[in-house]
Structures are given as C-alpha cells and as structure tokens.
Design a protein that fits this description.
- The chain has one domain: Cupredoxins -  blue copper proteins (Immunoglobulin-like, Sandwich), CATH 2.60.40.
- It has 152 residues and is an alpha+beta fold.
- 18% of the residues lie in helices and 38% in strands.
- The chain has 2 helices and 10 strands; from the N terminus they run H-E-E-E-E-E-E-H-E-E-E-E.
- The strands form 2 sheets. The protein has a 5-stranded mixed beta sheet, with no helix packed on it. The chain has a 5-stranded mixed beta sheet with strand order 4-10-9-6-7, covered by helices on one side.
- Helix 1 packs across helix 2.
C-alpha cells in the first residue's frame, strides 16, 4: 500500500469514526439527535428510474441547531444507503466503499435499507454550511444518488 493510500484510509477512518460507535460525538456536520427532544420530520425517498438512482427530495434546507428526523423509504429494488457528511468526507468514503463494497456502517449519520423498507435517522445540525447525503454503495453515487443539505 502506498503512503498516499495509507493517509487516505486513515483520514476516512477518522471521519467515519468521528461520529462515534454510539453516535454521541460531534462531527463537522452535526451530532446524533436526542429522541427526547422535538424534531422536524423530513421524508426522503430512495428511487431508481432507468439507469438513474436518486433521492427525492435531493435538496433540504435546515436551520442551524435544528434536529431532523429523516424518515427514509427505499422504494427501489436494490439496497440503498443514506450517509450524511461533508463533501470531502463523502468523496473519501466513496473511494473506500469501492475497495470494500460489503463495508457495514454503524454510525449515527448513516443507514442502509433493503428494498421496499423504511427506516429513520435522527440528526441535529450544529454548524452552518452545505453538507451532503449520498448512497455510497459502489455505482449508486455515480448514477446520481446524492443530495445537498443547506444549513442556515
């Protein structure tokens, strides 16, 4: 393994683990939500349309400090993921997923769903900025499965 690959792998591990195994640590894009506090529900569908894979909606606006309960519906025939992150973190994680396509996630900021299933993810956005949600299963991001979260 080249030194640059080792550095990339170390950075991805640090970014992925920054949310902590139990999701209690903060990240650049927020922290795990608190189920005992109020949240706004945002429904997101995971879909396939011909050669495209997509999220609907693919743009979400959030207020800084707001807690969101993402209700995720996989309406497709394939497994899909919903992974929150920074642009750089998502790009690096996607590279690692190509090398390890069966990688399991146990993070508060990600969820994998089987076909025609529903799940929930609770997240509090603590920083302003533009963040990303994506499906990092190899081939899905390349087919359009990503969205943007704008925190104001």
């Amino acid at each position: 393994m080249k030194l640059s690959q080792i550095r990339t792998a170390a950075l991805v591990i640090a970014l992925v683990s920054s949310a902590g195994a139990l999701g209690h640590e903060a990240t650049a894009f927020g922290e795990a939500g608190n189920p005992s506090k109020p949240s706004r529900v945002v429904h997101v569908a995971m879909r396939e349309a011909g050669a495209k894979m997509l999220f609907a909606p693919d743009m979400i606006e959030v207020k800084k400090g707001e807690q969101i309960r993402f209700v995720l519906d996989n309406e497709g025939d394939f497994n899909h993921e919903f992974v929150l992150g920074t642009e750089r973190g998502i790009a690096l994680h996607a590279i690692e997923m190509k090398k390890n396509p069966d990688m399991e996630h146990d993070d508060a900021h990600s969820l994998r769903l089987g076909p025609y299933t529903r799940g929930e993810l609770l997240w509090r956005f603590t920083s302003s900025g533009r963040f990303v949600f994506a499906c990092l299963i190899p081939g899905h991001l390349e087919r359009g499965m990503r969205g943007t979260i704008v925190v104001k």
